[in-house]
Known about the structure:
By secondary structure, this protein is α/β, with parallel strands linked by helices. It has twelve helices and eleven strands. The protein has helices spanning 3-15, 18-25, 29-43, 59-83, 99-104, 106-116, 129-137, 173-178, 190-202, 217-225, 268-271, 274-286; strands at residues 48-51, 54-57, 91-98, 120-127, 142-146, 154-167, 183-186, 211-214, 230-234, 246-249, 259-266. Strands 3, 4, 5, 6, 7, 8, 9, 10 and 11 form a nine-stranded mixed beta sheet that branches. Belongs to the LysR transcriptional regulatory family.
Amino acid sequence: MQRSDLQILTILAEEENMRRAAERLFVSQPALSQRLQSIEENWGTTIFVRSKRGLSLTASGEKIVAFAKETLSREEQVREDIVSNETDIYGTLKLAVATITGQYWLPNVLKKFVEKYPLVKISLVTGWSSEILKYMYEGCHIGIIRGNPKWRGRKQHLFSDALNLVDTSLSSIEELRKSEKAYIQFRSDSSYYQEIQEWWHQHSLKPPDRTIYVDQIETCKQMALNGIGYAILPSMSLTEKDDDVYKIPLKDKHGRLLTRETWLLTYDEALQHKQVKAFVDLLSNES
Length: 287
């Protein structure tokens, strides 16, 4: 089977839609449909079931697509190994990054990296910190995670991120005690919730009268900036443009700032790839 056939099967499985797959492959739908028919004839089985709702893999198709993905992945790995001793730095850098960090911190870092190493391809997945370890065990080179995880490989502290109570009118914790404003809470991992709950109990604050739950931190922030309620946000999500609101740093019972730590995770085998070491070195120089 040709490499292009493997790519076709992989993209069709990802998109589950002939039109979108054709757009990604820069071919017409009829040409792609004809090519798929030829691939299926070569395998002697139906790989995809066609319907008005799109494409779905048959049982045989699942095995064939798994083979296609594994073959492409192995080829990419071999190519990277072949060029690992050459001067130029290229290959694929596989990153797994906590969503908040990926949204507010990573873009500036990646901008510097791709400008310095334009030949490197970036593969990026984001998720809650609790998901990043799973991605690391599945083959990502570097994980950027919030909190302080247990990790047997290499671990490097990147930065501390202070938490702030953000509101358009509340300027102190004492005002919060008397307030009936809604608390706006964004979805995050359980360790973040636990830190907030501990802070809440340490200061003997009553539970909010009303809580508004939102999926995304940016939605939470915009609602707080528009006076709908107050929110607890990490400093990295706040910019100089957000000066029209009060930002009260949270402190524990000992008067220390409440922070979220951000760590880089990797392992010795990954650091043998020049593009991985280059990214780690860039972050080390930035800190």
